[in-house]
Amino acid sequence: MTSPSSLFDLKGRVACVTGASSGLGRAAASMLAEAGAKVVGVARRAERLREWEAEVEGETASIAADLGSRDALPSIAERVAEPFGPLDILINAAGINTRQAADDVTSEGWDRTIHLNLTVPFLLAQALAPAMKRRGWGRIVNFASLQSRRAFPCGIAYGASKGGVEQLTRAMAEAWSSDGINANALAPGFFPTELTGPVFSDPELAERNARQTCIGRNGEMADLRGPLLFLASDASAYVTGQLLFVDGGFTAR
Fold first, then answer.
1. Which GO terms describe its biological process (predicted)?
2. Which end of the chain, N or C, is surrounded by fewer C-beta atoms within 10 Å?
3. C-alpha torsion sign, points 193, 164, 92, 143
């Protein structure tokens, strides 16, 4: 019988985390490395990636690349397998939120949001899935959002993309889980990151969001460690196509 501790053991696994230079992506990349995985971080800012590698314990590598370029994605998918070999785990954490009112959204802003938040997770997973299939084991964790199901002001493009991520996750599970690749999504509540800077720069707004949770506070990076480790490991062997809200009960009220 598998021991409880071994269910969460990532030793020998190879993971890629997009958006690893900051915020939730950086926290995810660090946690996986500390749990024993060999982690490749992908983001645009090379200096921030080097800072992440210097501070984290474990085996890491980084690739500075622009996920916003569709033409670059095939090359990025190849490069992430170079440092440690074929990937077992893909964490799609990179994203953008322009926070524009519906009347102000431009076609360029809409296309960029959909591309980074929805198209990139699919195309990377599609490129990396064959190697996972050959080994009969894989984990894909997409980052969804409260806005996957809730409509927020100035969030029409972001919300549309994150609603798409929830359905994309189910479709990935339908397509690949019979080959051993489980696909799930995390939907964080309010966490202090670069992306949520406008929220936390307003103490009154941040406090109002905290009061709307069941727990009574906003998220801290440590709150993501357990849920992410669960979805990235053998512990979630019979869990696929699911969206897990890590929001302190915000959506429960």
1. fatty acid elongation
2. N
3. positive
The residues, any chain, with a CB within 8 Å of residue 78's CB and separated by 6 or more, are none
The residue annotated as part of the active site, out of 52, 143, 158, 190, is 158
pTM for this entry: 0.96
Domains and CATH numbers, the chain: 6-194+223-246 (3.40.50.720)
Place of tokens 């806005």: 147
Is 137 in a helix, a strand, or coil? coil
> In terms of Cα–Cα distance, which of 195, 86, 204, 179 is closest to 147?
195
For the question of residue 158 being annotated catalytic, the response is: yes
The three-state secondary structure class of 160 is helix
Q: Is 78 left (phi over 0), alpha (psi -120 to 50) or beta?
A: alpha
User: Where residue 193 falls among pLDDT bands split at 50, 70, 90?
Assistant: confident
Q: Is 87 helix (H, G, I), strand (E, B) or coil?
A: coil
- The answer to whether 144 and 243 are in contact (CB under 8 A) is yes
Name the token pair of 186: 């995390």
Length in residues, the chain: 253
